[in-house]
Amino acid sequence: MNDRTCIVTRQTGTPETLIRFVVGPDGSVVPDLKRELPGRGCWVTAERWAVDQAVAKKHFARALKQKVEVNPALGGMVDTLLARQLSGMMHMARKAGEFVTGSSKVDIAIRSGEALAVFHASDAAADGVRKLDQARKAFQMMAEEESPIPAFRPFSTDEIEVLLHENAFKHAAALAGKAGEGVVKRAMMLERYRSKTGAKGKAAMTNK
Predict the structure, then answer these.
(1) Of 109, 102, 136, which Cα lies nearest the Cα of 206?
(2) Which run of H or of E encompasses 41?
(3) Distance between CA 186 and CA 32 in Å, rounded?
(4) Local structure of 83: helix, strand or coil
(5) Residue 69: CA atoms inside 13 Å, Cβ hemisphere, count?
(6) What Rg, from alpha-carbon coordinates, does the chain have?
């Protein structure tokens, strides 16, 4: 089997489209999102349904060629880790000046072309989302882009407050730069993980 072949779909992929799992010291299967942990590993398509299927059908023991302990909630654990990665990168981007919050600042970032992506709380007021959607459409037309700046709704207001504390937001934007690009990359990973064959998930990306 190719080093990077999903143990569920048997399809090859890249580190960006697969999640590596290894056996921990206690014999349990753990996700290795940074692909740094030692030991024999295996790969699973970076989508929740694939991880859940690997757990249900005992693919890990076969792929790792040993008896392993698999937490039935492994799929949820991965979701939590991906969410923490995203919020952590948001913190870093904020410190680097590449992540702004507040409707007014986001509107300016969109219309100036600085915004790489827009973020809304999943329970943000429809009126606030609509106004920023209008800004995205206006910039798309002005810049003659094929599609508007992507928008994500990965977390509820309560989740944002827990993850980001004083940096909590209803509306935010990732700006051009290495840290801002990192935010978008991790948002896309979380969106993909929570979706199934393109179906909208909790962190569904909208291109209205």
Answers:
(1) 136
(2) strand 41-45
(3) 15
(4) helix
(5) 6
(6) 19
- Name 100's Cβ contacts closer than 8 Å, sequence gap at least 6: 106, 109, 172, 173, 175
Residues 148-191 have pLDDT tens digits of 999 999 999 999 999 999 889 999 999 999 999 999 999 999 99
Question: pLDDT tens, 114-136?
Answer: 999 999 999 999 999 999 999 99
How far out from the chain centre does Cα 168 lie?
A: 17
C-beta contacts of 134-138 below 8 A and 24+ residues apart: 135/106, 135/107, 135/110, 135/111, 136/110, 136/208, 137/208, 138/111
Residues of each domain in the chain carrying CATH 3.30.1330.30: 78-206
Q: Taking the model in full, what pTM does it have?
A: 0.88
Residue 108 burial (CB count, 10 A): 15
Average pLDDT of the segment spanning 59-63: 96
d(CA 71, CA 61): 13
- Span 78-206: which CATH code? 3.30.1330.30
- The DSSP secondary-structure symbol of 149 reads P
Say how far apart CA 4 and CA 71 lie, in whole Å: 23
